[in-house]
Every structure is written in C-alpha cells, then in structure tokens.
Amino acid sequence: MQDDPKTLVSTDWLEAHLKDPDLRILDASMPPVGSGPEAQGTAKAAFDQEHIPGARFFDIDDVSDHRSDLPHMAPSVEKFMSRLRAMGVGDGHQVVIYDWQGLFSAARVWWLFRLMGQTNVAVLDGGLPKWKAEGRALEDMPPVIRDRHMTVRVQNHLVRDATQVSSASKLRDHEIIDARAAARFRGEVAEPREGLRSGHIPGSKNVPFGDLLNADGTMKDAENLRATFDSAGVDLGKPAITTCGSGVTAAILCLAMERLGKTDYSLYDGSWVEWGAFPTLPIATGEE
After folding, report:
1. Which of the residues 14, 181, 196, 244 is marked catalytic?
2. What is the CATH number of domain 157-275?
C-alpha cells in the first residue's frame, strides 16, 4: 500500500515514526455493536493492559454529544477541543488512530477529526491485530501528557442529518451508501439494537464495510476499492452520503472514498439508529 499520513499508514510507517516528537497515537477501540452493558469499559481495560507505545485512549462514547439520545453523535467543538487537549493532542501533531478489530472504529475517529478541520490524521492499516501479529512493540505504561491547543474549523459539509438524507433519498441526487451487512440492509434480520425497523433508506446502495477490506483487516488497494463500489452499482461521479447502524462503519466508506481521491462525501451521523426508529421515515426492503 501507499502510505498517506492524511488517510492510511502501514505498520512499517508507524514503527519508523514512533519516536517523532509530534506524533500522537490514539487507540479508538470500542465493543462490537449490540454488546451488552457488561462490555462497557472492556476496550479501555484492554488498552490499559497493552497498547502501541505512546498511545492515548480515545473513548468514542465519551467524546460525543451526550445531549442526544442517539449513540456517539459528533460532539460540540468545545467538548472535542477539551477532550483532545486532555489527551495532549493539538495543532502541529500528526495523529495515527488504530483499534483492536483491525479497521473498524478507528475510521469513525478519523472522520471526526476531519469534521473538526484536522487533516494530518491517518488510520493504521490493519490496526492492533496486524501490529501484534508482526511482533511489534507494546507497552502498558500511560503516556506523558502535555497540553497543546487545537484550532478547530468545523467542516459542516462532511455531516448530514435526517432531513438532508430524506431529501437526497427523494431527489436521488446523491448516492446513499449503506455499510451494514447485506441481510440487515435487505431487512431479512432484526437489527442488533431493539426497537428499530428492518430495511434501508429508499434508493440507497449496499456496500458492507467488510467488502472494502482484505482478509487481514487491511484496506483493499484503489483498484479493488473502485471495483467494489462499481459492483454495488455506486456511481462515484455523484456526491455520496454514507450510513450504517450508528455512524461508525459508515466512516470506513468515507475513508475508502478519500483513498480514491473522492472528496464530495458526507456521513449521516444518526444513521439507522435514528432512521429506523422513526415510523414516519420511509424504508425499503430487499434489493430495491
């Protein structure tokens, strides 16, 4: 793969830059969707036991909008800035994000940084599983934190709400791309969160996020990424809105499009946990 400190970097790249004074590494691991209350805190506990040297833990549920009933919605500028300052992350830093599943929740935090106007941020390709499989260094020591100011300029074009997605669904002027598994998209199985209808946003296309990844959890190369979107009927010439269950894996679609040089994408932050809960919003099932 081609290392790009604005999208995706390899384990080789990260190991070579571990000593860089302006490098900041974030562990953005989170429990799988649908995990019960007993899973809360497991990602942080695993981080405390072992992590890539110098890493800080980024709690996606903490760095979110707690005024919303929806899970891990994008936080206010003030909250994002204060939490990142407490992690010692600010202007001038190169940020690399990883998670314990390979390439999962790290992409959500990458998108969140982009939303806040920070572009020197990349996801570690293959994440912690690849790093460990290659026998690279781990530690259990907390990092030394020094505050640094972060300048935030919100990029509102990167996020969409239900009203905007509803309009796009009716006008068909955007490609709405759903990252959930095919059975969930078609409405053949129940959603992992209770109380949600099954199906998808009318007019949306299905690109399960796993289809963008290799067997080892790394992202496919540009040629295969493009082929995956093409096979799903996605017209990459149109602006795109990504969606999923709760706005996490939709960010993997955004990352893949950024790797292809496509920048006219946005993420539906409420995703299916919002759309599927409102009986007045239309749904489709099957392949329609």
Report:
1. 244
2. 3.40.250.10
